[in-house]
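Q: My hope is that you can spare some time for a protein that puzzles me. Underneath my words sits a plain record pairing an amino acid chain with its backbone structure tokens. Those tokens are not coordinates but codes from a learned vocabulary of shapes. Thank you; the sequence and its tokens follow:
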Amino acid sequence: MKKTNFINRLKDKILVYDGAMGTMLQKMGLSTNECPELYNLHHKEVIKEIHRQYIEAGCDIIQTNTFGGNKIKLSSYGHGDLVEEINKQAVIIAREAAGEEGLVAGDIGPTGKLLYPLGEVTFEEVYDGFYQQAKALIEAGVDIINIETMSDIREAKAAVMAVRDIGDIPIICTMTFQENLRTLTGSDPETVVTILEAMGVDVIGANCGFGPEMMVEVLKRMQQVSQSPLMVQPNAGLPKLVDGQSIYDMTPEKMVNYVDDLVLAGANIIGGCCGTTPHHLRLIVERVSHLKPIPKKKITFSKLASGTDTLLIGEGHPTRVIGGHINPTAKDYLIQAIKEENMGILTEHAVKQVEAGANIIGINLGVNTQQESRMMKKAITEIQQAVRVPLSIDTVNYDAMEEGLKVYNGKPLLNSTSAKDDALNRVIKLAKGYGASIVGLTLDENGIPERAEDRFKIAEKIVRTAVEQGIRKEDIFIDTLVLTAGAQQHVALECLKAIKLVKERLGVKTLLGVENISHGLPNRGMLNNTFLAMALEAGLDLPIINPYYQSSWYTIKSADVLMGKDKNAEDFVQRFKISNNSDTKIKLEDKTPIEKKPLEELMCIIKNGDKKRALPKVEELIADNIQPIDIINGGIIPALEEIGENYEKQIYFLPQLLLAAETAQHIFQAVKGHVKETTDNSLGTLIIATVKGDIHDIGKNIVSIMLENHGFRVIDLGKNVDNEAIIETAIKERADIIGLSALMTTTMQEMKNISNLLKKKGIEIPIMVGGAVVTDGYAKEIGAHYAADAIQAVKVAKAIMEGKM
């Protein structure tokens, strides 16, 4: 199906997507240990009947039974060799059921694995798995590809890239959010939209996770920053176990009452996820027949994003700033750090610049071009774990630029390209491929023109070429290039004239490396800030500055007040309320790394997830006669407690938590090697497992790592573990606690079975339970303790051992 035809349909009509496949399969006999996708080969009529019921309910789109149809997921059932056969057969079945009028979407779900560095599977492996599946679906004739239930934006990016690399087909991508309205890896709704729009996804949305009430809130936030059609597939409320069966508590009659709110929040497509049936969808079809989609508002501001948060730039927003300190030019200590691959110093300066007020962190590693690609990849991997602001990849080495893009979770700024055809086309291709904004320099084969009009003509070419190749105007920034007033005073103001021309005639955002104006001159700060004020008045959107200079902030924040960018001067008052005579206290923050005490440095290594520096630091501490127990109690535990507190406050998210935990685990293992064998400092023994019939173990693995780091002896039995095996191991190992995980409502019944089995055998071992579908109420019902996440699991386990629970 042509994209334009699909998008045009969404302007005039709210389309209805089908409902749950898994719920229907379970009603028709699917057991917990079965692979649902195998039904495409061995129970074709069952799948066709489910499709037929949704078509009869009036659904415009049905999706193939291929949610777990990628090689990685199928391999967990031992069917990794059946990807093509399963997916193509699924399309044939759906197409027969849909007839001539119905649309068929090829369904692509997650792999169930965490991507490196959080897990073992690489971006390339995930991409290959999605590519193989998407190729089979597209070759078999689907109209649309639906990438759904993604909890990691980077995995979603891999899936989108794979689909797009096969052909021009409409792409829907929906993410799953938690109760804090963030994905598992921390992305909020605005960030999901920002990243996926930049990658050319046609319809963006949310599915699974919870019922329609919270979906309304997700859509409202998406709508504020989105020009794309939105889709929503809520669950039928919350699941409950009744007589061993998973029952969702929202009836069709109750669920349909939310349809109007979903449409007002921006929904163009409405479907159902877990617990929904053809009856739910029939009522939704009837309701939307009386409704029209809400027109999309025109968005003129620009958006950049980290993996977790979005930055809005331009109209209606304060001046944003790029922190330009991570640049080795004239900084010997940064040159040395880059040569030594000391990411700790770069990460520390990223953090310090954000603390100083920078909204974006520029990364320029131009020391050795032979190493730049590898170093860019490494720097971005580590810096994005330490800060939540977007990054600017500052290089004209386009191989290095691409390596950085491969590992970046968000939507970065690519700084930069000239108007030279080869460079311009390469950067545009990278921006489209990975989802990024671009910086165009007013520079061509003839160099930098002196006159503003000539610089404008170059900018015009860059904008025209980028737009023709599919880049939105909001994703284009023009740098009219600052030349030093010390050498070329007569052209200093041409840069500002060019900014005005670009803003007035092209309608794109502007960027400048402001401090270039003062190279070679005394009292640089005064000249820089005067020029900065003039540039802001001319229309500069995004200055690159050294954020450690307080005087630059006086200029920027004052200009925002006077130009109406800071409503009621709220930001100005907040920033400067402590000092009444701020203009006399211009200060440069210390640019060199702060000396830390040994255990403080170890804590920083853990918090930054810096595994490379972890073991050398332990050996250094041991050599300095610091006792292993002091390393654990004074370094590892305080660092993990701080990480845990920040996780609960939503300052950190899963990536930071997991990388810190893994780094702490490396340190803990190294320290244990220096502890006498007779010493037993464990807090207790805990058996942990994912219950029988459940092959999901991401959450369980994270809990296991955190418990071990906090001093528990953890025996991880893995996933899909038999009830008797769990109990036998607990007895053999004299376990103090049994930890159980389940992701599916159909498998959490095993938690109750294990609890009953323990009682039957007269064994009194506390049980701690958790997982996506598990609730505190269910835990109490079966006589267990509930832990919502890894941090809470540590607290609950400690409380059990202390006799407080």
